Amino acid sequence: MNKPGLPQGTRDFSAVVVRKRNHIFTTIRSVFELYGFQPLETPAMENLDTLMGKYGEEGDKLIFKILNNGLDNPAKEQQAKEAFSKILSGKSSRDITERALRYDLTIPFARYVAMNFGQLTLPFKRYQVQPVWRADRPQKGRYREFYQCDADVVGSRSLLNEVELAYIYSQVFSKLRVPVTIHINSRKVLAALAEICGGEDKMMDITIAIDKLDKIGLEKVKEELSGKGLNSGQVAVIDQYLSIGGDETEKMTQLKTLLGGNASGLQGIAEIQYVLDRCRSLPAGSRLQTDFTLARGLNYYTGIIFEVKANGVQMGSIGGGGRYDDLTGLFGVPDVPGVGISFGVDRIYDVMEELQVFPDDVAAGTRVLFFNLGQTESEKAFALMQQLREKQVACELYHEQAKFDKQFRYADKKQIPFTVIIGSKEAENGTCVVKNLASGEQHTIAQAVLPDFSFQ
Known about the structure:
The protein is 40% helix and 19% strand. The chain is an alpha+beta fold. The two termini are 47 Å apart. The mean pLDDT is 88.
């Protein structure tokens, strides 16, 4: 028999890991709720038409497509063969696949808004915590199945939303004890750069290349741009743009000089400055800074864009997002402004493990193990155990009568900090022995007061 395994890029999670992940989820959800966001869930799979063409050429290649049912039907065999030839040539065919696993949470959210627009109270603020799937090459911090935690606002053009989203990032990571830098740029600045370098049709080529800067370096980015048809003068302008540095005032001055009087660029600069000015009092451990190398290579962003990186850790972005002023227009509901951010929980988990900032008690499960020392004794133990559970104390009764050392080993392996022992003598006189396994300290107390004992 072959040894069982997992699909590449997926993982099992033990109880300890699940509890640590839940700590992250709970923290993020609590901050979302503080800012007035409502929960939403959408299906794991969407119609292929909903997803394709929304993430750019690179993103479309990473969408997991689902084969249609019934392809083994003899009546459809020839049809399927012809469809597979289309698939092999890089095209899609409804004869083979009509659905796909969601690539992110933003496009499904836009689809939801478009379908329910008449019933929503605007601005509509939602958060969503669900897994997504990408046919990416697995590596450190990059998986094929992973969770995203998104918060979005639609129906408002106010930049106060961007300010609040920056504060949400800062507050979450402050609570998680992860020091971060929140990078900010504007797609309007990038659009202006594209106009200077040959026109709007160069926008995606430029942003996709710039988005790879951290991975492939400046020279490779310039080579890629040349390969996309930009001449040496245009590549030189982008080189100058990517070399902007200094403090915030100096960077803004250099950018204004480079973009000249371009209207889109000046608007983008003004919006960045608005957010910076109102985020001067972020919680300790986080800071907001301009980063003109930030591009986020997705088609739908139109304004302010964010990316969050953990300080002092070799890891890619652990959060990102931005404004998308016509995303629902893709689904027949035009002119609905929106802005949103996403938390990459799997990367956040890896960062917190590396920094060792999970709370000491985050993985705690059972607090008390009741020993099983016979039928009469275990019946008394069970009754007391139920009283502790009503007091929200997690506890277990060992599943069978066994020797002391076996039950102690069980408690040790499960890292259960307390045991309660009721032997024949204790059952007769109404007492029990409570032992702290870490300190070795133990107390004999009346069973009647056990529910009020502090298992700390």
